[in-house]
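User: Methionine--tRNA ligase. Structure?
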Amino acid sequence: MSDGSSFYITTPIFYVNDVPHIGHAYTEVAADVLARWHRQSGEDAWLLTGTDEHGQKILRTATANGVTPKEWADRLVETAWKPLLKTVDIRNDDFIRTTDVRHEVNAQKFLQHLYDSGHIYTGEYEGFYCVGCEEYKQPSDLIDGVGEYAGQQVCAIHSIPCELLHEKNYFFRMSTFADQLLALYEENPNFVQPASARNEVISFVKQGLSDLSISRSSFDWGIKVPWDDSHVVYVWFDALLNYITAAGYGHDDEKFSRLWPATHVVGKDILRFHAVIWPAMLLAAGIEVPRQVFGHGWLLVGGEKMSKSKLTGIAPNQITDTFGSDAFRYYFMRAISFGQDGSFSWEDLSARYQSELANGFGNLASRVIAMVVRYCDGEIPVAGDFSEADELIRGTEKRVTDAATLAIGHLAIHDAIAAIWELVDELNGYITAQEPWSLAKDPADRDRLEAVLVTAVRGLGTLAVLLSPVVPQATAKLWTALGGIGLVTDQRIDRAWEWTGGPRVSPLEALFPRIEATVG
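Assistant: Predicted structure:
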């Protein structure tokens, strides 16, 4: 439905049963970097995030804390989940809650449409249900328990026993869409990425799909099934619909036509919901499937997936209070290949902050600005002749811009930053080789000095534009110091080397101050 100029990207909506950890922030930052990049490429970029507030897990958590589920959700959203966006500097366009009226009403419209079209029927189901995952588990999803759960089968993700449930529910005829899904994966290899995720999904569907239980009658915290208010909608069926209800489905056809389809960025543990159940739901409703589902890896601490229940969860502000939001964003986007698991350590974070941000990029910016102030009274020179070394820098600006743009197109954020960092390294090497401090000593070398300084300024401005989606606060400061015209976020990132600025630079404070305290 989109004309190709829109870029609608989503994070999962997160359960409000607990406060966020850096695994949640990692997903938010990745989606935000992609949205910012596409926005600076002149596209109609729209970033959605939000919270998942229905289901048995939320009901039990709220009850254990002596409040209603809605009171619990309100508290967590306002004190933890929305503040997370500020903590890691997310520029989202919308924040949806599954308790929003706009979601509940239009989710019911979708469900009624499937019911009227014959895609839903009544039946009975018995199976092992993990409340933590809010999912019925297949035998292959269970593992042998250890410790207090030795001798029992437990959920492979949450390491706790599942509950045996037997309910009369409504079912979605998902099994009828297996062939269409396999054709989708075959005809559009990019629909599920990375390749490892795609292979997993294809293997799962080829084993055969069962119909999906989409209602619960044993509790009442959820969206009422529109034709039977003794049932509430299965929490995942409810949650997946946020991607279209927020985008206008059922209430704003123009907005929905402009934005949909979306790119979904999700953790690999919820890949099947997004790459199997969700497109099947849309196929049944006659709605275009998402543009792409990208399943990123887990953040590991001590070799285990980030988890509050296992006491490996780290709050984002534990990092940002010391290093700042820019360093958080840079580290997780640079240090981990997006799509693969990655290990977090305080030592690696601290080392990269010092060597790459403070010494590499930050010191480069400070040196260049300081030399223009010292040798040219802050006025950016208008150079005449450029040497081969100068032209090589100019060529690198264009080359890394193209390489980074190509990488972003594949959601390879880590590769994009690596390409950009080639310019950081080349500029540092260029300044060391050209020795502007020596050129400044001899008036006969004035022209050469000015050519070196203007080359360095131009390269630094290109870096400000290219890195603005990743480190927005530092690049905004640098842009101001360079005398950049307008806001750095308004510059076309796919033509970063064409940036324009004023005649002068202004003093620049350290972008990444030295951190003396030991952290972790």
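DSSP finds 18 helices and 18 strands in the chain. The longest strand covers residues 120-130.
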